[in-house]
Amino acid sequence: MNSLTPKISGELVAKLAKHVFILQNGIFSLAKTILNGLKSKTISLEGFSQHELHPQVSDSAAVDWIFVVDTLNFSFWSPDDSSCKWEVSHNGRKYTGYFALCAAINRAIQEGVQITDPNYYCNVSVEQLTHILRSDTAMPAPMIKERVSNLHEVGKILVNKYKGSFVNCLEQADNSAQKLLELIITDFPCYRDEADYQGHKVALYKRAQILIGDIWASFRGKGLGFFTDIDSITMFADYRIPQSLIHFGALKYSDELMAILKSGVELPSGSPEEVEIRACCIHAVSLVCEEVRRLLREEGIQNLSINSILIDHFLWDYRRQHAEQLETIPFHKTRCIYY
């Protein structure tokens, strides 16, 4: 049975959900916030490449860097009972979470490790990757064995099928984000982020879609990052964006689910509650996107555009910038390779 697309999965689960609810008033108010961000240029395509850890040159090396990072881009949270976080220093700055991963990859490159070459990482050992991702604190990077397994899987496929570079996979997609998404989930099983929900096979595809979104953003929608259908990509369903959506009043949890999350109990990957959180985020952001487009049309603004990727960037950045404030909203804890 083929999976539904992430967009249709979001719509379907939102209709059937028992624990997660989308609030229309919150959708409207968040859309106004996004519109103001577009007008002030605080929300734009430039944000990705402006970060000091992201590739600064739009070339094939940037594509292979993004592919490695997004192959490892999952599960950075620390257990509640831990006294510290996984932390990586690079060029005099300390980073946690996703940015700690970027810093560790850049540090390895500076040290002469061929970490973006699949000929190297298709055989990388647990010991080697542990060293590459080494922490400044007592907290190591989580799920090292799973990260090694991912690298072995995708590395061998790139070497055997795509001449050792994700660029060759990208070029087969003919500038179609949907064709590239299909190639990724078909050829690289660790990107196949799917679940069964009330008898429906739903797809969330967080890492596959963020891989496409990151290439698009890094290349500013040009060259290797040009896709005719980039707006078909949804937001990237993770464990942080829900905090922002709840903060903005666009999402609400049942009392039962909120109590589970506050207790720190982990939600199994593929459980109904976990699927509802992620799928409802996809649908909520799609609704915000539609409303922003309606507001742009209403105001006759033709030189600004929006999609779910840019809204995702805003919500993810907002959570980091207001971390203390949003810490009162629990995030769902699920250990898996998908996000």
Give the CA-CA distance, first to last residue. Answer: 23 Å
From the spread of the alpha carbons, the general shape counts as globular
Residue windows where pLDDT falls under 50 for at least 5 positions: none
Number of structural units classed as domains: 1
Oligomeric assembly: single chain
Report the major sheet: 2 strands, antiparallel
Percent range for β-strand residues: 5-15%
Helix-strand category: mainly alpha
Taking all Cα atoms into account, the compactness measure Rg is 19 Å
Helix content: 40-55%
What is the H/E order? HEHHHEEHHHHHHEEHHEHHHH
Strands side by side in the biggest sheet: 1-6
How many β-strand runs? 6
Number of helices: 16
Average pLDDT score: 97
Structure description:
The chain has 339 residues and is mainly α. It has one domain. The protein has helices at residues 6-16, 24-40, 47-50, 60-71, 97-110, 118-121, 126-132, 144-161, 166-172, 177-187, 206-218, 241-247, 255-262, 272-298, 308-321, 323-326, and strands at 20-22, 87-90, 93-96, 194-197, 200-203, 251-253. The relative contact order is 0.18.
Quick structural overview:
By secondary structure, the chain is mainly alpha-helical.
Descriptors for this entry?
single chain; mainly alpha; 16 helices; 6 strands; globular
Topology, element by element:
Layout: H1 6-16, E1 20-22, H2 24-40, H3 47-50, H4 60-71, E2 87-90, E3 93-96, H5 97-110, H6 118-121, H7 126-132, H8 144-161, H9 166-172, H10 177-187, E4 194-197, E5 200-203, H11 206-218, H12 241-247, E6 251-253, H13 255-262, H14 272-298, H15 308-321, H16 323-326
Keywords: Hydrolase
Catalytic activity: queuosine 5'-phosphate + H2O = queuine + D-ribose 5-phosphate
Function: Catalyzes the hydrolysis of queuosine 5'-phosphate, releasing the nucleobase queuine (q). Is required for salvage of queuine from exogenous queuosine (Q) that is imported and then converted to queuosine 5'-phosphate intracellularly.
